[in-house]
Amino acid sequence: MAAILSIRDLRKIYDGGFEALKGVSLDIEEGEILALLGPNGAGKTTLISTICGITTASSGSVSVGGFDNVTEFRAARSLIGLVPQEITLEPFAKVHDTVSFSRGLFGKPADPARIEEVLRKLSLWDKRDAKIMELSGGMKRRVLIAKALAHDPRILFLDEPTAGVDVELRKDMWEIVAELKASGVTIILTTHYIEEAEAIADRVGVITGGELLLVEKKEQLMARMGQKQLEVQLTAPVSEIPAALSQHNLQLVNGGDALLYTYDTRAERTGITTLLNDVAQAGLVLADVQTRESSLEDIFVGLVSQGAASDGAVSGDAA
Length: 319
Prior knowledge:
This protein is of the alpha/beta class. It contains ten helices and 14 strands. It is elongated, with a radius of gyration of 24 Å. The two termini are 14 Å apart.
């Protein structure tokens, strides 16, 4: 599938010398959902702002639907909808007027039926004549989303869209995202709720220190970097791991009540059978055995703490 968004060697250096983006290159395919993950200050918002033309890049290029976002700014920007982190709305404006005005800013003709559709999807129709200042924080967030959708963008940026909002809005938000994806809209989101990214993303990008560590299909990433762990719970605690079990690279957890064994499910042998036999030979009595698998959050934390991807380079999917 063709890329609707192409970023090449994008750099942003502020006047004080701080380099917020360090040569980011990325292709995003039409109709996919990309989750961009990174700690605070990683460069996520700077990257989004630069793509949208809010911030000017120091060097590099961005192509949106084939339009350069500098020399063909209006055409490029008209394809983008942006839901920013910060709630910046005119407090005395009415909800309906705010969303309609946003559509007009992009040169789209008035379309009351479309505005009504967007407001109804976001449970804002009953609040259409309310002033922004009269709304709750969650409702204001809904208005931001409605504004971003009003001109029917082909690319939607969601910068922490569910931060600080209620569970109902989060549920509504992801239902809308699913509908937009089904209609062919490309979605790039940042979120601190990594379990949400794990649930809906097609690909995952990890950025830290202004550098893109990797971009990879979610399933491939979790298969490549995910691990399984076996927790062997004991009937009586031990103060140290018996020497007879040293070959298994175990961890003592839960105050000595359990042994933790990490293994790779892709390996020819997991080593579990040998481990359990050796535990019994060492005179330890099992109370229970439990397994758990790495989540996307576990992988993300590991990547960020390392400061680089496992192979030291961006995955081929990012080129």
